[in-house]
Amino acid sequence: MEFIGDEQSRAIWNQHFIQVKSQIKQPRRTHTVKVVTQKGRNYSYKYADLADVDKAVMDACRQVKDKDGNAAFAYYFDIANSSQGVWVQTVMVDTSGAQMITNKVWFSNTKSEDAQKTASLISYAKRYSLSAAFGIASEDDDDAQSLKPQDNRRRVMVLDVDELNSFKVNVLGKSYLLKDIWNDYLEYKDPETLHWLMDQKDPQTLQAIKQFNDQYKMKKILDQAKEKKAKKANETKPADKTETGTSKDIETEKNDEIKKLVDGDTTDDETQTLNLF
What we know:
By secondary structure, the chain is of the alpha+beta class. About 45% of the residues lie in helices and about 20% in strands. The protein folds into 2 domains: about 1-155, no CATH class; about 155-235, no CATH class.
């Protein structure tokens, strides 16, 4: 999952999320599915549909209020639909302005031309994502589930460090580590490499690219935080009061200017370049 916000808003968001979780009541599984397998075996299971899960979550959210009596926590969906499939993310927000974005849930859509079946698939993906975000068991978890045929809709997996670093892709018939392609792009900013990265349609490859991009953004945030901390530390250092503003200081400044004229400006070009970013 991805969190957007600072440390203070993270603490507030965590508090609100815990309060919402404690208020959630397991939705009733009022819908029944009866299935006959290809081998003639029968089984059925009950489940709570999207409306049931949404009601359970929103009822809990309404119990968590800010000092003005307004709801302090809510959620919405981020959805994408293409000819290959659909993906859904649940975005949980609170009054601090922070957001927690769940990992993408992706399902292949073999009937993308059928609007009704596509809508049903999106609804299923929403229920799956929302239930996972708030820890809701929306389907029966019993022996009947073991009789269900395996879901052929491919789900995107979040890769761990080793899996991400060893993730391979096919480029013009050759196998390459995605890590090497990503690092080449960061180093050379090659537009063809960028086009290749943006043109990928395999959901698992897109997930791997997203994870590399998240790592890059996190590194930039940490580097900026370190730089800001160092700058703040320099600003808070006590000023040298020894002869400040005296004729000695003025004379020293003049001497420095003369030295620059004689020796030339020795400012490090690399430092100047880095300061542009």
